Amino acid sequence: LRHADAVLVSDYGSGLLSPQVVTALVGPLAARRVPVLVDSRYDLLRYRGLTACTPNESEVEQALDLTIGDAPRVIERAGRAILKKTRMQAVLVTRGSRGMALFEHGLPTTHIPIYGSDEIADVTGAQRSVLGWIESLMGLHLGKCVLITGGSAGIGGQLARLLAIAGARVMITA
């Protein structure tokens, strides 16, 4: 970890990761201001003070006990609430056929539409979009990236493969 340029945390409830474990692992990287991004299925609000999180809309709805639907005011309030509660620098909410919404402190919300078919058939497409966002909007180059995941199969394995395809040198820790 000490040579990582970025850390991606993929916590999908396997029990191997917790906010406390992640904080202990990435704490020594704070002096170098290494970006730490988290994708947590069940504990989104327990991860605090990291660089960014990438929940999907249903995860936001579950975390805040609300329904977003097509209501612009609701996604705005929800994204801002997640940003405040997690103390992240940014929150990128993936919204399926509605695209993505990026929330950052002191900036207006950026709504990123999808182009082409509005039928979502491959969830790795959302992951690729998030990786693109990480690289372009955050100015991060995925040279040496550590993926901390609850396992090497499933979504963590998919993300590791996408990072490798993008040119990152990936180390998976589980």
Task: Summarize the structure in words.
The structure is a single chain. With 174 residues, the protein is of the alpha/beta class. Helix content is 33%, strand content 21%. It contains five helices and eight strands; from the N terminus they run E-H-E-E-H-H-E-E-E-H-E-H-E. The chain has helices at residues 19-26, 57-64, 72-86, 123-137, 154-165; strands spanning 6-11, 36-40, 52-53, 90-94, 100-104, 110-112, 144-149, 169-173. An eight-stranded mixed β-sheet has the order 6-5-4-3-2-1-7-8, with helices on both faces. Strand 7, helix 5 (154-165) and strand 8 form a beta-alpha-beta unit. The longest helix has 15 residues, at 72-86.
Kindly state the percentage of residues in helix.
25-40%
Enumerate the strands of the largest sheet in spatial order, edge to edge or round the barrel: 6-5-4-3-2-1-7-8
Sheet/helix structural class:
alpha/beta
Whole-angstrom Rg: 15 Å
- Overall outline: globular
Low-pLDDT regions: 120-125
Number of strands: 8
Strand content: 15-25%
- Secondary-structure element series: EHEEHHEEEHEHE
State mean pLDDT (0 to 100 scale): 75
The termini sit apart by: 13 Å
Main sheet makeup: 8 strands, mixed
Number of DSSP helical runs = 5
Q: Which descriptors apply to this entry?
A:
174 residues, alpha/beta, 5 helices, globular
Q: In a few lines, what is going on in this structure?
A:
By secondary structure, this protein is of the alpha/beta class.
